[in-house]
Amino acid sequence: xxVENQLPPTTTAGDxxxxxxxxxxxxxxxxDLDVTQTIVATGEDTTLEIVSSTGIxxxxxxxxxxxxxxxxxxxxxxDNKAPISQPQEFDGNDIYPKSVEDGLDRKTIENxxxxxxxxxxxxxxxxxxxxxxxxxxxxxxDALVGFDATGENITMVKGxxxxxxxxxxxxxxxxxxxxxxxxxxxxxxxxTGAFMPGTGESLTLFTYNNASDAxxxxxxxxxxxxGYNIGICxxxxxxxxxxxxxDSALINGASSIVLASDYLCLxxxxxxxxxxxxxxxxxxxxLPVGTSANNIVALDQxxxxxxxxxxxxxxxxxNTARDTALIxxxxxxxxxxxxxxxxxxxxxxxxxxxxLSVSTNATYDATGDYYSNAAETVIASAAASTNSSGNTGRxxxxxxxxxxxxxxxxxxSVTFKASSSAxxxxxxxxxxxxxxxxxxxxxxxxxxxxxxxxxxxxVISAGATAxxxxxxxxxxxxxxxxxxxxISAGDIQFGSPSANWNAYYxxxxxxxxxxxxxxxxxxxKTYGVTGVSVQSVSDMTLQSAAATLETANPSDIxxxxxxxxxxxxxxxxxxxxSFSIDNGVTFxxxxxxxxxxxxxxxxxxxxxxxxxAQTGDQFVMKCVTANTKSQRIKQYVAVPGY
Length: 642
Hints:
This is Tail fiber protein. It comes from Thalassospira tepidiphila. By secondary structure, this protein is mainly beta. It has four domains: 10-119, Sandwich (Immunoglobulin-like), CATH 2.60.40; 165-284, Jelly Rolls (Sandwich), CATH 2.60.120; 325-372 and 539-641, Sandwich (Jelly Rolls), CATH 2.60.120.260; 374-537, Jelly Rolls (Sandwich), CATH 2.60.120. The protein is 10% helix and 40% strand. A hairpin with a 6-residue loop joins strand 8 (143-147) and strand 9. It starts with 9 loop residues before the first strand and ends with a strand. Residues 179-204 and 281-287 have low confidence and may be disordered.
C-alpha cells in the first residue's frame, strides 16, 4: 500500500450549519486526528471533540463530524498529530509484507506531519549558515529583531515602542513637507490635501503663503470624532494668520490662536470630550540645518548634539541655578542689617526690623528677628533679691497659691534667679498641679519636666535669670502650682512676696517625686522662682510691603523661607504662603516643599507659585498660619521667573 503526497492540515471555513468536515490525508487511528476551531476576528483557538469519523486507513482521507456546527467566521483545521513512534514489532524470520508495509506507511505519515510543520516556519536560505540563534530573553525584552551588518547574526533594536513613535513622527513630518511643496499658496488662498499618516487617522493639511494678515476657520466640531486632526502650515510670508473655529469652539482654551512666525506648522486635534480644539504638535518647515541663529539643529552620526558656543541661548530657565542662588542669598542675608527690599532682582527680608505692613495676631521678637504666632503672658511673679547659701544638693519645692495666679493655660514656663555671689546650676526642674490633700509640697499627679533650650538642666550666671522653654500643662486659674527643682551647684536668691508663696526644701535629688516627705517649710517665701508665664497661640497673617520688581509680569515666583516650627506643622494647611505682583489685589497660592534642616532649630522650605494670571511689578508676600500651630517665621528670599 502507498501513501499519497498529501500534507496535513486540511482547513475549511465554518458556516454555522455544517457539522461534517473533510480531511485529505491518510491516518491509521482516529486518535491521530487533531481538530482546531479558530475565530478569525480574534484569533481565539478551541479544540473540537470528534463525535464520529470516516476514512481511517484510507489514502484519500475521510471526514470528521462534531456535535454542533462551528460558527460562521471560523476556520476548522483537521491535522495529523500521530505520535512519532513505530508500534509494529517484527519477529525474527517471520516478516509479513503487510506488517512491514504498515510500519513504513506510519513512518511516512509522521514524516509528512513534520514536513507540514517545517513548511510553516521561518527558514534561512539554502546557502546560509545554520548557526543563527536568538539572544537571551533579557536582551530581547522591549526590542525589535534585526540583523547585523553582515546579515549573519541576529541583533536587537531596543525601545521598540519608542522607535515606532519616532518613525510615525518622521513619516507625519515628511507628509507635511511634501504637502507644503505640492500645494503652494499665494495671496492668502488655501488649498486642501488629504492623506493618511496612520491607521484610522484622517488629517487635512492647509498651507499658506500670505504676504498680509489672513484668517482660517476650522470646521464645526459637530460630526467630528475625538482625535480628528487638521494641520496648518505657513510656508512663507510676513502677515499674521488668525485661526478660529466655525462654531466658536475654543482652541487651547481661547477663542482663537495666531501664527505670527514664518514656516510654522500646528496640528489642531479634537479633544477627547469632543468640545474643544487643542494644538498637539509643532514643526518648522523650510529652515536651514545648522548651528546658527534660526537654524534647525541636526544630530551627528552618534545621535549627539553638535558643539555650540551658546551665544544664542538667552532667557533659558535654569531652576537649579535659581535655587542655588536663593540658598546662597538666604545664608548671607542673615547677617545683613539692611531692611527688606529688592537687590539685583532678588526680593529679601531677614526681619532685622519690624518691616511687614500686616502682622495680625503676630508677635515680633526684636532679639531673635522673627515673627511668632505665640504670645506670652506672666500669670504669677515675685521679687527675689536676697542671696541664700548652703543649697547645693537640695531639692526646692515652691508652692504658688491660685490667689497669686491670674489665669490658667495649656503651655507654661518658669523663670529662675541665681545668687549674685555663686551662680546657679539646675540639675532638673518640674512643674505640676498641687495635690488637693496630703503634704503641701506634693504633686497631684506626675509633673511635667521643664527644659532649657531643650536641655533638662541649666547653668545660670551669678545674679542672672533663666526662663525655661514652654511645656504643655493644662491647668485652671483656680489650681495651686508646685515648681520643684534640684540644685546641683551654686545658690539662689529668695524673696518674701506674700503668704501665697511658700518654699520647701530638702537634701537630695527628688524634684520629680509626686508624693514627697521630709521637707522643711519657709512660708511666705520664694526660693529662686520669680515668675510663671503661659503661652497662647493664635492664627497669624504676615504680609510684606510692596516691592517693585525690576521687570514686570513674571510667570512665577520661587521663594525660600527660614522657619522654626514649635509645633508640628503641615505646609499648605497649617501654613499657607502666597504671592502677588499686583500690589496685593490678587494672591496666588504657592506649592510648599521642605528642603531640610537649617542649623539647630530652623527648617528651610521652598514655596513656588504660578502668577501668570496676574499682571504688574508690585511684589507682595503673604503668609497665613492656621489650626493654632505655634511657629516662627524668620526670613524669606524670593526671585521672579520669566
